[in-house]
Design goal:
By secondary structure, the protein is of the alpha+beta class. The protein contains 16 helices and 27 strands. A 10-stranded antiparallel β-sheet has the order 2-3-4-5-1-10-9-8-6-7.
């Protein structure tokens, strides 16, 4: 009876890659005493197999045990040892190289930059369709990247998962169409799980491998997953060019359209982070990671670092439970960078260590929408050129406050502490609320400084978030009405005649949504055409949701000049 296996993961090498080029030679030399390799052939495929055996022994006490040992004479110490077996199987099938991994260290020898980054998810979407999903993972590229992990108790179609158009799908787990004995899990790699008679023999393994290569080339996923953000991986030479541009921007401390985000799902309440893992020196622990830290905290040598530096240096998870840095839970600086660049009139995004080019249809669709649907309004000149510098910073909160001092009928909501549902009362609803005389409408105004893509994305997503809850959440409505009553505007009754105390009587058609972007007087007036592409996309999502679903009366942009100060402060070292 032939031996069978029930689970295997596959990576697909890029075209023209071979057995030698996908192997990390430095890692191979590092593990030379732990590796055995074999070169062999099956009936239809050439193969190379690497067997990796690792062992470790640790004599370090956990911090809490060291704490207890301070007070006891007969101290207690802890040691642990472990042995693991892993494997890497390289298969040449249909003129392409597949890498099958086994165990926890199976992929350690692979050069990730030589592998196709979307092989798993594209193949899984093509082969499984959207009808038997078990799990999805997605993210949104906003000022604070949001990771969303969904599980359902039984296989369901994509509608049940309720994925929003703004989410970038990164992982699916689903049954193969018409075969519930086979489950595919797709991200960069494709994991095959089988039960019953479907378990893998060598013949089935090769057959599946050939099928996976064919299915990866299909575009059926565009029908099953129409909201999948189709952005193509770029070739290595272009990726190198983009890397050089990225390095120069960081050296110049130009962080427009660049931020840091851990590239996987991790519980923020369980972990903090460190940019170092020094054994003999103290390490600084940060509650969050920030792109500005790299230069400001001297983690990079500003004039000498290269893209290799970004790929070799790591961010480590600090476990509050273990009270230590987890050396095995780490990510390269490079893999944590989210960046959007324009190069030779094309738009690219770096995410999870991979540069991708926006699909031309997507790019044209978003620009066409902004050009045709988004109105840019002029505001009353009375509110131009407000000085917004306070407490060593230029702040939109100063503009909001000054606006409401001038306009006695407007209500300041900036920094209001409102609740949604049973959550903490730390929400705002908007920055300014303004009754429009003679129209019977109220303007819901959101204000942000025009700085970079992140600030714009934050503004648009914030407007969508609060305006949706305004129409549906009873607690939010009560707090909004109470804030209006406590504020005591001159036209209080007009506000309350529209913002009624009955949630069912709150209608989007009674409100205009105003998105105000502040720019420094003397600078060129911003144009909607120059808004970064991902910010335009977020604006489209907000518009579609608020106008088409919630029926708000209108949505408009305004660019308002303000007076700012470039502040610089010197302090002595004594």
């Amino acid at each position: 009876m032939p031996n069978e296996i029930a689970k295997i993961s596959f990576f697909l090498a890029k075209e023209k890659e071979g057995f030698e080029s996908v192997i990390d030679k430095d890692k191979q030399r590092e593990l030379t005493k732990s590796i055995e390799s074999r070169h062999f052939k099956t009936n239809v495929a050439e193969a190379v197999f690497y067997f990796i055996k690792t062992s470790s022994e640790t004599y370090e006490d956990p911090p809490w045990l060291s704490f207890i040992n301070e007070k006891i004479e007969n101290q207690i110490h802890f040691s642990t040892s472990s042995k693991r077996a892993s494997g890497l199987l390289l298969l040449k099938v249909s003129n392409r190289l597949l890498a099958a991994t086994f165990g926890t260290k199976g992929s350690v020898l692979l050069k990730k930059e030589r592998l196709v980054s979307d092989f798993g998810i594209i193949t899984a979407m093509n082969m499984c369709g959207s009808g038997e999903l078990r799990q999805t993972k997605s993210s949104t590229h906003t000022a604070t990247t949001k990771h969303i992990d969904r599980h359902l108790s039984r296989p369901s179609d994509s509608f049940e998962f309720g994925m929003d158009e703004s989410e970038h799908l990164q992982f699916i787990s689903a049954h193969l169409e018409n075969n519930k004995n086979i489950t595919l899990q797709g991200k960069d790699s494709l994991t095959l799980k089988v039960i019953g008679d479907s378990k893998l023999t060598w013949e089935k393994l090769i057959s599946h491998a050939e099928e996976f290569i064919i299915e990866y080339k299909s575009e059926n996923y565009k029908i099953s997953f129409p909201n999948y953000l189709n952005i193509e991986e770029v070739p290595t030479p272009l990726s190198n060019e983009l890397d050089e541009i990225l390095c120069q921007k960081i050296k110049n401390e130009d962080y427009s359209n660049i931020h840091l985000s851990i590239p996987e799902f991790i519980q923020d309440d369980e972990f903090s982070y460190s940019y170092t893992n020094n054994k003999k020196r103290e390490n600084n622990i940060y509650s969050h990671i920030c792109i500005e830290h790299l230069i400001k905290e001297k983690l990079l040598s500003k004039d000498r670092f290269t893209i290799k530096t970004l790929k070799n240096k790591h961010i480590y998870a600090y476990s509050h439970f273990d009270e230590r840095i987890l050396s095995y839970k780490k990510w390269s600086y490079y893999s944590c960078i989210i960046a959007e660049l324009v190069h030779k009139d094309r738009h690219y995004i770096l995410s999870s260590g991979v540069w991708k080019k926006f699909d031309s249809d997507f790019y044209n669709m978003v620009n066409d929408f902004v050009n045709k649907k988004i109105t840019v309004e002029k505001t009353d000149n009375t509110y131009n050129n407000i000085y917004i510098f306070e407490k060593k910073k230029n702040r939109e909160s100063v503009f909001n406050s000054e606006y409401c001092k001038i306009n006695k009928k407007a209500i300041l909501f900036d920094q209001a502490k409102l609740g949604i549902g049973t959550g903490i009362k730390n929400k705002e609803f908007c920055d300014i609320l303004e009754y429009v005389e003679g129209s019977g409408l109220i303007n819901i105004v959101h204000v942000k400084r025009y700085e970079n893509a992140n600030s714009l994305i934050y503004l648009f997503s914030q407007a969508k978030f609060y305006c949706e809850f305004f129409l549906s959440d009873e607690t939010f409505l009560i707090d909004i009405r109470n804030h209006i009553i406590d504020y005591k505007p001159e036209n209080l009754e007009k506000y309350l005649s529209i913002i009624k105390d009955n949630q069912e009587q709150i209608n989007g058609k009674d409100y205009n949504i105003k998105l105000w972007l502040l720019y420094s007087k003397g600078s060129p007036i911003p144009q909607k055409e120059n808004i970064p592409i991902m910010a335009k996309y977020e604006l489209k999502l907000a518009y579609d949701r608020l106008r088409k679903v919630h029926k708000y009366n209108s949505i408009a942009l305004s660019f308002i000049p303000v007076i700012t100060t470039n502040h610089k402060e010197a302090k002595s070292t004594t």
